[in-house]
Amino acid sequence: MRPLPEAPGPKGYPVVGMGPHLARDLVGTFTRAWREHGDVVRFALPGSLRLFLVTHPSHLQHVLEDNQPIYPKDPLSVGKFESFVGTGLFTSNGEYHFRQRRLAQPAFKGARVASYGPAMVSASGDLVAGWRRAGITDADITPELMRLALTIVLRTVFSVDVGDQAERIASAVRTCNAYTNTRLQRFVELPLARLGRAHRRFVAARALLDRFVYDLIRRRRRDPLDGDDLLSRLLAARDESGTRGMTDRQIRDEVVTIFLGGYETTALSLVWTFSLLSRHPEAEVAVRAELADRVGDRPVTAADLPALTYLRLVYQESLRLYPPVWTMSRSPIEHDVIGGHRIPRGSQVFLSPYLVHRHPEFWDNPEGFQPERFAKQGPAQRPRYSYLPFSRGPRLCPGSGIALLEAPLVIARILQSYRLSLQPGHLCVPTSNVFLYPKGGMPMRLTPASGGW
């Protein structure tokens, strides 16, 4: 039998291979390699490191669903995330992961999720009221929407409002994420790296978050709320025997995981959506007309969302073009074959929704902004794994339902009060990070809407 061919790919520099390119610009390097070499790409790296990028829907289904048991989370990446989030749903593998998922999953479902709507709208109203009181006309909306999303998480998921602590908590999360991202882009970590200033800042930020979260858990165990927020559900969760729940550490890890993925990803999806509406004013006009027709002069509610068809199409298309979780990594525990190429055991296998969502075989005008495509082409008309903003398979994001409620409500409420326009000359370019951030932020002109409040 003839041996399987090596996957094609760029070679890079002598000795270090593609390491510097990947560290400098992961989004751009992945994109260029995919366009030049196809749906399975191998990147030359120093020593025994083996890194692959796969971008065909059938390949993603193979890794995330059909052959999922041999593709746990990549231990190299997980180890760097664990220093921040611990062993939560995002980082855990195997039976532990699926036990935690069974315990946590009910907290993300049911009528309670819909009941978060008023708090989401109220927090959005507070944001725009603050802009109006302060007379703000120009701002980078990235930190503004980060702060809003964190406020929504704290109010809805944990039933607390931290007031002036919000910025300290948000800053701590940003510090931890930035440090984690830097580590992820290093293929070799020097032992002395943990003696540097960046590591000390990370440790201090993580300690601040831990104090806040553990205090929240202790107070809630001591004085349970009558409400039914996500923290209460995590505390009340029991396994099949009905006796074993989560320890404080396990709940801490899930709460910090929510901070990592539950607020930052939603905030970034909002940033990219407002940038797209500014770049495509005809879409903004259509969304505003729909809001005026279906909602009128009152604040939007969750009950309005089924009627806000075009707004939801806009958000779907925004998630296609700029999925906040733009790449995922796995590492096979057995040798495997993808696309006719051998994937050795222990390789890093990267899957990129950002690139799959741009695959010309499955999307017409893949780089174009066309919300109507989701109305004309239903899910049954394209491969399931051609669109996965919240992943798919057994590890589908459990918080996707919250995100799909929150983001359209926030977009609608802000548009009822303001028009957001990109500052002239700003280029909307994604940059490599744990999530898909805009390079240079998203500076915008904030103009009060006529008749808004």
Order the strands across the largest sheet as they lie in space. Answer: 1-2-7-4
> What does the overall shape look like?
globular
Overall number of strands:
11
The number of domains is: 1
Sheet of most strands: 4 strands, mixed
CATH topology: Cytochrome p450
Low-confidence stretches: none
The CATH superfamily is Cytochrome P450
What's the SSE pattern? HHEEHHHHHEHHHHHHHEEEEHHHEEEE
CATH architecture: Orthogonal Bundle
Binding site for heme: 397
Family: Belongs to the cytochrome P450 family.
Keywords: Heme, Iron, Metal-binding, Monooxygenase, Oxidoreductase
Protein name: Cytochrome P450
What do these coordinates show?
This is Cytochrome P450. Pfam families: p450. Belongs to the cytochrome P450 family. The protein is of the alpha+beta class and 453 residues long. It has a single domain, classed as Cytochrome P450 (Cytochrome p450). The protein is 50% helix and 9% strand. The protein has helices at residues 19-24, 26-37, 57-66, 75-85, 94-104, 111-115, 117-134, 141-157, 166-184, 197-222, 230-236, 248-279, 281-294, 309-321, 353-356, 373-376, 400-415; strands spanning 40-43, 51-54, 138-140, 328-330, 336-338, 341-343, 348-351, 418-422, 430-431, 437-438, 443-448. Strands 1-2-7-4 form a four-stranded mixed beta sheet. It has a three-stranded antiparallel beta sheet with strand order 3-11-8. A two-stranded antiparallel sheet has the order 5-6. Strand 1 and strand 2 form a beta hairpin. The chain starts with 18 loop residues before the first helix and ends in a 5-residue tail after the last strand. The mean pLDDT is 88.
